[in-house]
């Protein structure tokens, strides 16, 4: 949906195929390599299996049956899975749902690994994991055929059984150093020499499947079908874009569920005290290379691998054309969750932030129309002026007897001239925007007299004013931001302490050796992360990067506490240095402060997302209720709905 | 870089009195009028020489606002020296000194050397606190006193170095057990080893014996 012209998609098979992989970003780099489905019309079918189903709800009753095929074109192997039309046993699974899960021509060059599951009760199934880390939902072989499936793949592409887990098969993955090692040890050949029967246990009966279902027989047909559906809808471009996003969400969710299951199994298998390892990576230890001596306790999670599986690749920022697709004709955001997710994975283009940020902050409601917002903006403007007038009308005589006002005013005056003045927007004497910043902060201290003004607020306001430009609009956005972050500035620091406490709990959960190290070195108060949390990493990144991070955090996806996972992610990236150099309370603060400007945001966000997903319920349980930024009940209900829908 | 001793300092005082500017002038020999306000605790370091011995000063610069004190207090511990700063052009920053001092006495070690600095003495025309008042306060509370200007660099070197001199003297006099890092002093490898508790275990003529 990015590099394609949104208004002319109906005949673009490539687009349709791309959409089927769940995320457009996956395909951005390898569009040229991947053949579109329509090109596969002349492909040779090397494997076909009916009654292969996916279970969108984890309940077998609601499975969607379909046909799995392997197609060979030239030297490339492709896999497709097309659901049977109108076969769903559950009314809730509409044709649209089935369509969402359809796998149209995924090339094996884009597949990282396939994992086979053979439950003691129930059907064998496989999970296909793409090189991007995304996984398709498990494919259940109702009528057997798993062995044949692997055997066929093996004939056409290099597939190596993971030395760590016999049920994981890595697909021509020679970028992986471990794979290279294995390859140099000629393990692939020895694997290749195994007979299929010794490699794969016998599968259940592989009798011919009955073809009572009307199947959408091949991928090009289904694309035509897809196009027909799209043409029927009133606004095809919008419809599709939203579907793609929804699908992305579903597939991502599946990847998480299935992979988290894998990790859990892995953890269970190794026991809590043993070194934990992901299942689908090969291990050097297993090929009898002496284990490396590490000076510090190793990371129990192996974050790199975790992120590879769960952390999504970053997308390009949301831009105007795509943004318009999120709005209906009257300006309502049709699918707020899809928008949040989109912003989470890519951020927003700079010139669009002014429009999008008020939604993310909760200042504009998602279901408001253009007209309603226009009205609200002017009403809010006069409300702002009224509050501002409260302090502007304080006379000199009155001020003499109003210590709190004088103190706040002086403090704010002193701080606005010490906030981002090196930025051209705020530089120079008598800069009107510095004046605006002062006025907004002082007005806020009247709007929320109890909280008043505290250092750090100017850091939070600066980017908002920079983006919103308009004083009243910036004020209200700031108000809504502080609805979330206000507790950071509580006089007793309770909001900060609760976040630092939650952070220590998360580190305990996600890196117990590091937690133990902090404990031994009297660093468990996590004061060294104080600045990170107080002003949302504002001092740690370039200005532009901070804007990106903030909009990502404001989506509250996948957690409103993602900022704490960002802290964990950064700490984990430096855990070896922290522990190896035996940093103490002082030196740790120095080290953390000096990371400013040295942190690469995208990998950290990826890690943070992976950690958050991995932590799951345990992560939620580690963060005490009420830890800022608290969600409003309205937001909470949206998340609840989303969960219900997917699960 | 090797040093004979490392002294840990902390800079405290009201917001906007020029703590960060004093530090920057001392470590970088420059004045930065557009300096972002300090959030939490920041850090600076510089080598100086006292009695021909290289001494490293490790300086912790704290945010001045009241509400951050619960965090910044924890950095008092293990400080050998403190610079308590007020702004001679703002009376209230002087009035708050007692509260800062109380904080320091409560959370720092008893032998911490405190230097009182009346900053911004270049702004004499806007002076709100006289030199005598500063001297008087210092005398009453047993502090070293100096007026300085982070802008012109006047007395900035002196403030940091005199404080170090006083600490060094205390080591000579055997006030500290330099092997105990909670006093904010560390004996380096590159200089004179400390007394009994020196890292290499050898005795030293440089420090008195306090054990």
From TrEMBL, chain B:
Record-listed E.C. numbers: 3.6.5.2
Keyword field contains Membrane: yes
Enzyme kind, highest EC tier: hydrolase
GO BP terms in the entry: vesicle-mediated transport
Protein keywords: GTP-binding, Hydrolase, Lipoprotein, Membrane, Nucleotide-binding, Prenylation
A molecular-function term among this protein's GO annotations: GTP binding
Record's subcellular location: Cell membrane
Pfam name, any one: Ras
Topological relation to the membrane, as annotated: Lipid-anchor
Keyword Cell wall biogenesis/degradation attributed: no
Gene Ontology cellular component terms for the protein in this record: Golgi apparatus; plasma membrane
Annotated PROSITE patterns: RAB, RAS, RHO
Family: Belongs to the small GTPase superfamily. Rab family.
Role this protein plays: Intracellular vesicle trafficking and protein transport.
Entry protein name: Putative GTP-binding protein yptV4
Organism: Helianthus annuus (Common sunflower)
Gene coding for it: YPTV4
């Amino acid at each position: 949906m990015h590099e394609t012209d949104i208004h002319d998609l109906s005949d673009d098979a490539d687009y349709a195929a791309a959409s089927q992989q769940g995320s457009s970003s996956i395909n951005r780099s390898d569009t040229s390599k991947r053949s579109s489905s329509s090109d596969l019309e002349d492909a040779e079918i090397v494997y076909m299996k009916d009654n292969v189903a996916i279970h969108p709800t984890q309940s077998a009753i609601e499975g969607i049956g379909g046909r799995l095929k392997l197609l060979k074109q030239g030297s490339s192997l492709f896999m497709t899975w097309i659901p049977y039309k109108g076969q769903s046993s559950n009314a809730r699974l509409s044709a649209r749902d089935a369509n969402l899960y359809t796998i149209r021509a995924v090339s094996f060059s884009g597949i990282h690994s396939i994992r086979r599951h053979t439950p003691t009760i129930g059907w064998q199934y496989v999970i296909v994991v793409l090189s991007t880390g995304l996984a398709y939902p498990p494919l259940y072989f109702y009528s057997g055929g798993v062995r044949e499936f692997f055997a066929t793949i093996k004939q056409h592409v290099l597939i190596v059984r993971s030395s760590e887990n016999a049920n994981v098969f890595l697909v021509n993955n020679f970028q992986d150093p471990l794979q290279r090692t294995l390859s140099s040890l000629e393990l692939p050949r020895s694997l290749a020499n195994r007979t299929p029967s010794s490699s794969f246990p016998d599968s259940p009966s592989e009798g011919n499947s009955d073809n009572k279902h009307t199947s959408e027989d091949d991928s090009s047909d289904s694309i035509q079908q897809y196009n027909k559906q799209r043409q029927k809808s009133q606004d095809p471009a919008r419809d599709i874009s939203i579907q793609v996003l929804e699908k992305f969400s579903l597939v991502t969710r599946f990847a998480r569920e299935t992979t988290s299951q894998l990790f859990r199994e892995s953890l269970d298998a190794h026991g809590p005290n043993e070194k934990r390892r992901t299942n689908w990576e090969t291990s050097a230890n297993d090929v009898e290379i002496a284990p490396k001596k590490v000076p510090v306790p190793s990371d129990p999670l192996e974050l790199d691998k975790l992120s590879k599986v769960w952390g999504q690749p970053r997308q390009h920022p949301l831009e105007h054309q795509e943004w318009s697709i999120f709005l209906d004709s009257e300006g309502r955001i049709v699918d707020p969750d899809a928008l949040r997710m989109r912003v989470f994975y890519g951020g927003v283009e700079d010139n669009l932030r002014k429009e999008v940020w008020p939604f993310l902050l909760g200042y504009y409601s998602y279901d408001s129309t253009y007209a309603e917002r226009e009205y609200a903006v002017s009403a809010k403007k006069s409300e702002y002026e009224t509050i501002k007038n409260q302090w502007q009308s304080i006379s000199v005589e009155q001020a003499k007897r109003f210590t709190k006002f004088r103190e706040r005013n002086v403090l704010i005056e002193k701080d606005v001239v010490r906030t981002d003045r090196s930025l051209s927007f705020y530089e120079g004497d008598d800069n009107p925007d510095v004046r605006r910043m002062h006025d907004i902060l002082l007005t806020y201290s009247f709007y929320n007299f109890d909280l008043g003004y505290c250092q750090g607020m100017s850091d939070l306001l600066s980017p908002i004013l920079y983006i919103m430009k308009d004083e009243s609009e910036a004020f209200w956005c700031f108000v809504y931001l502080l609805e979330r972050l206000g507790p950071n500035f509580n006089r007793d620091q309770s909001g900060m302490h609760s976040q630092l406490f939650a952070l220590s709990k998360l580190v305990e959960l996600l890196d117990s050796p590091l937690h133990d190290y902090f404990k031994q070195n009297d660093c468990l108060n996590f004061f060294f992360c104080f600045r990170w949390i107080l002003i949302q990493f504002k001092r740690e990144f370039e200005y532009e990067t901070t804007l990106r991070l903030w909009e990502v955090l404001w989506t509250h996806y996948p957690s409103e506490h993602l900022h704490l996972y960002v802290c964990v992610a950064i700490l984990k990236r430096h855990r070896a240095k922290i522990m190896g150099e035996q940093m103490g309370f002082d030196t740790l603060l120095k080290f953390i402060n000096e990371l400013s400007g040295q942190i690469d945001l995208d990998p950290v966000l990826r890690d943070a997302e992976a950690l958050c997903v991995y932590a799951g319920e345990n992560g939620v349980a580690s963060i005490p209720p009420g830890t800022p930024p608290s969600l409003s009940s309205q937001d909470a209900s949206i998340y609840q709905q989303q969960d219900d829908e997917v699960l | 870089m090797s040093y004979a001793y490392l002294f840990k300092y902390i800079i405290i005082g009201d917001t906007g009195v020029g703590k960060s500017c004093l530090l920057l002038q001392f470590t970088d020999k420059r004045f930065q009028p557009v300096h972002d306000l300090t959030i939490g605790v920041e850090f600076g370091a510089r080598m100086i020489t006292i009695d021909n011995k290289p001494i490293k000063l490790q300086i912790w610069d704290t945010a001045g606002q009241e509400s951050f004190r619960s965090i910044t207090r924890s950095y008092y511990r293990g400080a050998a020296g403190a610079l308590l700063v007020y702004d001679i052009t703002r009376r209230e920053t002087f009035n708050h000194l007692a509260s800062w001092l109380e904080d320091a006495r409560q959370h720092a070690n008893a032998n911490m050397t405190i230097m009182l600095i009346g900053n911004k003495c270049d702004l004499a025309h806007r002076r709100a606190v006289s030199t005598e008042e500063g001297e008087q306060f210092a005398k009453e509370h047993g502090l070293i006193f100096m007026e300085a200007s982070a802008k012109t660099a006047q007395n900035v070197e002196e403030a940091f170095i005199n404080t170090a001199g006083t600490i060094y003297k205390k080591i000579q006099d055997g006030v500290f057990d330099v092997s105990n890092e909670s006093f904010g002093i560390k004996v380096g490898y590159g200089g004179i080893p400390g007394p009994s508790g020196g890292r290499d275990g050898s005795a030293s003529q440089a420090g008195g014996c306090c054990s």
